[in-house]
Amino acid sequence: MENRYKILAVDDEKFNLLLLESCLQSESCDLVTCNDALKAFSEFKKADFDVILLDILMDGIDGFEVRQLIRSRNKKIPIIFLTSLLDDINSTLVNRITADQYSYYLNKSFNKKTLIEKIEQAVQTYRESAAANGFLQKIESDLALAGEVQRLVLPNWCQINDQLISSFLYEPNFKVSGDIFEFYRIADGRHLVVLGDIAGHGVQAALYMMALQAFLKMLLAEIAPEELQVHQVMNRINEFVRNDLNGESYMTCMVALFDFRRNHLTFHNAGHPGLICCSPSRGEAREISADGRGSIPIGWSRDLPYKEEDNIDFDFEDDSIFISYTDGLLDLSKPNAPEEVIEEKNFRELLGALAAESNVVSIPFRLRSVIDQIGFSESPDDVFIMALQKNCAIPTVCFRQLQPTTNSISAGVLEFCNFVQHHTGDEELGTRIELLLSEFLNNVVLHGLVNAKRGKAVIAVRLEVQEEKIVISAMDRGREWEDVPAFNVHTARQQLEELNANRATSGRGLAIITSIAESIRRKHYRGLNETVFIIRR
């Protein structure tokens, strides 16, 4: 043997063990012998063996039962069955042995050369498989790290400011994605959105994505607000792809400029899926008509410029919700039936219903979740969904984005408390809201977001003062909590205390929450935790 092996031999006949020792004594191996199956399993648990030589017929338990015990600890260590049993015409014995792909068969009439060759074959196959698995695990680890780096160059998953409310779901098909997304607030109050889908998958598309994200940040920082036009942004991106990336790839792309002061949108579409406008008041969703305008994907040609006459202008209502996505969303299919994808009519109906009953922050996650729920769960491509809406000043609604820090949480909680007191004139109710939000949000930060990247981890909170109640919706992208069905105050305490005990927190905080809220509902939508509290006035 060229390499040194650690071998465990198991046989209840001493002669057979002596025979194995004689064959292997001059070889580069450490042989451990056992004449009892249970003692052999005990030895197996103590050391790392390279191969096991195992008899089939033994007193107590047979070799197949020993294999089952071994497989409970190690699924792949090679096992060579040594037996003098005669097989039948149907090869029942051999089939039973080789039903486990890491098991081998050798008749006890072997000679030394045959035994060593079988051991060499089994161990080398095992080691090569282990090395390959280690290499694949390293690749997966590197890809996971690359995926985390990609997320760092993206905007926050949620954006709430004085003019808009927006969120997006970014879901790589495997670890890394070729979808690009940039969100930029211009000095004059307008907002620019760039969305692209790079051709191909995997590492190559992800590398292009990183280069383009970096380029977009530099480009948008250097363009003067008065000179910013969507078709010119397209031309600059195309120049970068053709010149700096050598035109080796291409992408569909959409550049949109939102002006919420005038409720006006200008966008340019280069082969990308259409932009959808939802009306929450009517429960409708429709694709904005391009009237035959549009351009070829970025990177196809350096000689065909993107022109102003291909820009699309659209005036919208205050409550309009815009949905943009990459084609991976509509490529979702049913398991084992890749040709069965969701129909666009059904897709728009789902969107219209979600727009009517959901806040804009949760829409991308609820949409992806419901598509999965109705059976379209196989994903051949990266998926990206963005929802965006004008932040209209509704007197009875306070919608805020909080950082997971003590100062941000404290300031946000105080603002919600003052908001409730101002609109209800009830100081005691404001104090109850302050206590509930303080306890809950700090619990989210301590347990749900404990491993989240601080720069990207935000919590969105929406509070609405209604005639008879206060409705609070808190959304975070931290660790998934167990789904808690809607319940009233009588059952809430027990269920939340059970969750609380699982997280090793004190009972005081959640006891306060359940004593204040009339009902609590917590749901998880494809990476988004949403908790809704109802507090009676």
Automatic annotation (TrEMBL):
Keywords: Hydrolase, Phosphoprotein. The modification 4-aspartylphosphate is found at D55. Residues 6-123 form the Response regulatory domain. This is Fused response regulator/phosphatase. One of its GO terms (biological process) is phosphorelay signal transduction system. It holds the Pfam family Response_reg. GO terms for molecular function: phosphatase activity.
